[in-house]
Each structure stands twice: as structure tokens, then as C-alpha cells.
Amino acid sequence: MIYLKGYPAGIQQRVKELLEQKSLHKHLLQRYPKCHQYSNNDQLYRYGLELKQRYMKKSPPLKRITFDPKVSVIHHALGLNAHITRAHGGKLKASHEIRIDPCFKRCPEEFLRMILVHELAHLKEREHNKSFYQLCQHMEPDYFQLELDLRLMLTWQAAEQKALY
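Above: the chain's sequence. Below: its structure in C-alpha cell form.
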């Protein structure tokens, strides 16, 4: 249960019980029955820019938001916020990109939104500190519940993969 390492033992125990009863997936499907419709990078970029415009107008511009196969939940990254600085004619040019694991092409919109909110918050706050999480909650009031539920989904998927082998 690598996705739930920082959570209290009581939550981890309850998740183990739901996995043993084979009901964790049913629980998640009841809460999040539909997948989002953002299937390509253009749609994802527009969706991310809408969130940015709504909550973070004054933050640096985003060059790209993509589903990137180099990002992987296996390596504990749901998404990445790349801050790229290049020298151009004696000046430094900065660009910002958000890259998301393609496994989230088929997930509930709430989870995709939570990941985008997390990565957008890194435009203002680089560290995972109190103001970072306050900004996440400002953009998505259910941020912490969505993060837990996303981790439950990843835990269920990992358990299913393990059962196949």
C-alpha cells in the first residue's frame, strides 16, 4: 500500500479490509461514476488554462500541459511541474509546463482536476508547505478528500495488477 504510506493506520486497515472484500472499486465507482472527456493534449491544455485563469491570473504563463508517458505513478509522480530556464541573447527566458501521467486519461474528472490544481499551485509555491495546501484548497475545496480517493484508486489498481501476476 505504497500510495497510503503517510496515512493513519486506521485508514490503512480499513482499505485492507475493503480490498479483501473486493469492494474498494465499488466504493470508488459509487462516488465517481464517470470519466472525464479530456482525451488529448489540446483539450487538457484548455482545461488547465481555464483553471489557471479562474484562480491564478497573475501567475506565470503556461507553455504546455500534456499527458506525458515519461511521468509515472510507479515513480510516485502523478504530474510534474517543469520550470525551464533558457539563455536567449543574454537574457533568461523561463517557461512552465505541466506534465501528467497518461494513466489519468481515463479517470474521474475530479481526480484530473485535483492533479491540475496541485501542479498549478506549484507556479506560486514551489514547496509543499502550509500556503501551498491553502492555495490547493482555495482552488479545490475538497482537495484532501480527492487526494485520498485518488490514492485509494491507485491502491486498488496496484492490488489488481498484483493479483494478475
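The chain has six helices and three strands.
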